Amino acid sequence: MKPRLRTRLTTALVFGLTAIFASACSLHDSERTLDTSAADRPIVEPRTTEDVQAAMERQQRDAAQRAAETDDLWERARLGFGFNDALDHERVGRYIEHYRDHPRIIEYSTRRAEPFAYFILSEIEARDMPAELLLLPIVESGFVAQATSRSRAAGIWQFMPATGDYFDLSRDHWYDGRRDVYKSTLAALDYLQALHRRFDDWYLALAAYNYGQGNIQRAIDRNAARGEPTDYWSLDLPSEPTAYIPRLLALRHLFLDPDAHDIAITPIANEPALEMIEPGQQADLSLIAELADLDTETLKQLNPGYHRHATHPGGAQHLFVPREALPTLEAALETRNDEPLLRFREYTVRSGDNLGQIAQHAGTRVAVLRDMNNLDDDMIRAGQTLRLPASAPSEEAPLQVAGDNSQLAEDYQVQPGDSLWHISQRTGMSIGALRASNDLEPDAILHPGDTLKVVHADPDRGPDGQRVEYEVRPGDSLSTIARRHQVSIDDLRRWNGLNGDGIRAGETLTLYLASADGEAIAQSDA
Fold first, then answer.
1. CA–CA separation, 430 vs 436, rounded Å?
2. Which positions ≥6 away from 516 have C-beta within 8 Å?
3. What average pLDDT does the structure give for the chain?
4. pTM (2 d.p.)
5. What stretch of H or E contains 4?
6. Which residue out of 123, 132, 140, 271 is catalytically annotated?
7. How far apart, in Å, are the Cα atoms of 167 and each of 159, 278, 285, 315, 356?
């Protein structure tokens, strides 16, 4: 099956990314609720990849007219600003000073927004919504698609798991639609429109997006019962929703007139930035990057919905690439015809093997193995050579855990009620090492019957001190965590099976603290 190449876009992508999550960006932790009680009818219909493509095609048709208006997308956004109420409220002033004192929040956020901003703003305009909503992901996540809050809200729009499920932002071991910037943008704007229809006020709609529409309605009802005003500014709300709209309005001030506030806003080309491709089969990200003459990390950053080395074996398979890479990728894909887009290694079938076990160990599906090996059914025989995805662990090279305590790995079958924490306690293997050894993402869900590779720690060589599980927060690095808990970076790597310094919000690290009350210290820190 030949890939379907989507709308050709017209800009070269200037894409600077940083793994640092700027401090002071809001990652809310309140449960957002959807009111579906009215005959249990959904507020909006879930969006599909086809909806994303339709939006991109519409935007492409308007691109020439938009480019003629201005060459800077931020200037275009300013022309669409629509908020007028309480712009100079004293709560807004506090956050103007806050962002002025922390200019890197804006610097990093706008850099991360660059590949996606044209799509977001164009969709906002198509719905006749205020252009200030383009700035909302700065408040939510700093435009970090990998951001995860303590309550497991994820992506640039910070969808809670339940709300993401409602909007069909599916998630599993391979893919999380909440982190797919294009699909989650449609869902977020759908949600905001529904909230605006309910409250008939943008500030109340935004507060409901942050704090939950049921919570906002109850706050309104309390004020009404006391004969008090029911506008956003008069409601008695917790600290986060109280700060939410002031943060957004403060950003509005700074983006409207950056020179007056001594803030630098890097221009973004007022042109579509990315091309969507649907290969029609599971595709290895590193292989697609190689075919497109891209850096693999750049391709992953453009497609943050994918957790693993490849697109979904049976679900989401679309990819976004920069326009400048399209001709090279198209030519390379044409020459491959129907060849699999997965790197492979050869595996010799052993007595007792079956295709299901091999697929599970390879981190893929039986159907993918059938396609890779031109099999008509699941029948295999000892001595037969199969192609497996190259990212799968090798049977000839047993899995090892990094560090001095590495030992030969064993298979562990997940039992009902098991969690990574339980398995970690049982085996002495850190949660970080379990994730690394089994290619598990922070949102990975264990199911009874799953098989994990584990290493039982040698108690004679175990570290001293109080064992603590620490959840990585936005902005954390190994050096800040080590300094905060007075341990060495080398120990952090060794305890968690890390080969480098890469960590991300939501991960759990194991620490061994010398203090007897170390657990309480770490928990309060987290």
1. 10
2. 466
3. 80
4. 0.68
5. strand 4-5
6. 140
7. 10, 22, 26, 16, 32
